[in-house]
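Reopening: structure tokens for the protoporphyrin IX containing FE complex, inputs below.
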Amino acid sequence: MSQLSLSWLGLWPVAASPWLLLLLVGASWLLAHVLAWTYAFYDNCRRLRCFPQPPRRNWFWGHQGMVNPTEEGMRVLTQLVATYPQGFKVWMGPISPLLSLCHPDIIRSVINASAAIAPKDKFFYSFLEPWLGDGLLLSAGDKWSRHRRMLTPAFHFNILKPYMKIFNESVNIMHVWPHLGPLDVPPYDCLLPEGAPWFTMQAGFQGAKWQLLASEGSACLDMFEHISLMTLDSLQKCVFSFDSHCQEKPSEYIAAILELSALVSKRHHEILLHIDFLYYLTPDGQRFRRACRLVHDFTDAVIQERRRTLPSQGVDDFLQAKAKSKTLDFIDVLLLSKDEDGKKLSDEDIRAEADTFMFEGHDTTASGLSWVLYHLAKHPEYQERCRQEVQELLKDREPKEIEWDDLAHLPFLTMCMKESLRLHPPVPVISRHVTQDIVLPDGRVIPKGIICLISVFGTHHNPAVWPDPEVYDPFRFDPENIKERSPLAFIPFSAGPRNCIGQTFAMAEMKVVLALTLLRFRVLPDHTEPRRKPELVLRAEGGLWLRVEPLS
Ligand code: HEM
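Re-run output (same inputs, fresh job):
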């Protein structure tokens, strides 16, 4: 056996078996890593000292549990923002610091950084991956920038313009369901997970639409429930040209999307089930798998069918001719897209992007619309002014339909919408992982490796940015009043390279829905105040209930 003399280390000769050598190398490697990590950790702590931090609960839990996803949590956050108007540092446990940023001057450096320097942090979105794949919301690096360039034309106004018909039609169905009576369809909740309180699917799906439900004079409705279904209906038509009549009768596909969204939110609250292996053993995990399969099969089938009908040559000419005679849906546009080298998207890519639009476009818009109706219910004077604006616009027109060119002629309604998106931003927070030191305008440095939470809600409620931030005042968005304000004071659609690609689509749909709703109904508050509930989007606990009264 070979002998290794370690006397130079002050050790006596040792029989150096390969195992001992391996152990020594392993231990040195481990020690080097622990030392490097400890050094980096202390260095980061030192560099983060310039960021204020609220008192910790204790050394182990840090600030965990300080801002819960409840109404109380939202109030605590509002207080924190008032106390630390530039942002603050929190500890998620003993060794994980986070920076919460809530001022335009600080946010600017992170949100406008390139997608490589401040990529998305997957914390909020990781559970969406099996469903959405590598679509725009979740992808990163070169793939993201190539796809972003390819998909931007899909949201050009020439593509969006024909969707106005779809928006009008979907809101008409929500208001007046022309085909079936209230009890002609079975209950809809067959596919929904237990304990999805925000989506009880009762009134809407025993068949009646707003006009019928309010035929006795008025009806109390959960806005989230009705409006989510309507936004899904619109999206399914815009993305796939598919009419599932989901507002009139149950649709497995739509139920699966609602189920997936509910399951992802639920999983966030169950720490043990963050581990995939455990999650997929649970009934919820299996439902998630099943619903994912159903949604993917649907999207794949549409893509296959579309490819089958495409001619083998002259695809571009074929689609361009189709565009002239008929609305191009997002699938057509994705099939047409080419990068700079003429390379097209694969079927898998198209599926991921289409599924991403379906997810990202429905809940966000439904949240935005539900909260603006809530604010208008609380402020009848603003509601009446919006109504007059719409009546004036449509006064000699039949049928009463909002067209693309009308969108620019609803200034007060737009101000009311923006003020609501300020107070209740559908996406309350976004996160970024800083891969290089970022120097802030005041000289402080956000060290490499830190996760930053860009608090959209915090920025919108920051008294250093918005005087009397809790007051609903649409005149803040009067063109005269926005001149002095930073463009980053109002970021419901985020900003910078990874801003929302669907914001024009969303604003157009919201205006159509709001205009037609106010034309036909008076909206009144319910007696109980909604309690805010931030999940992937900002909801209300138990739904957002408002009363609607048909106008004669
Ligand atoms: C009121 C409605 C909406 C709001 C408030 C909203 C808000 C946002 C926000 C804040 C982001 C950034 C997320 C992040 O950085 O983590 C985002 C990204 C995105 N949104 Fe929207 N959104 C809305 C509607 C829509 C619609 C209708 C679509 C598509 C039809 C859409 C598609 C997307 C996509 C694909 C991304 C990812 C963009 C990228 O990373 O390149 N959104 N949205």
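Residues 126-550 form a domain with the Cytochrome p450 fold (CATH 1.10.630.10). The first strand starts at residue 3 and ends at 4. Marking as resolved unless the reporter disagrees.
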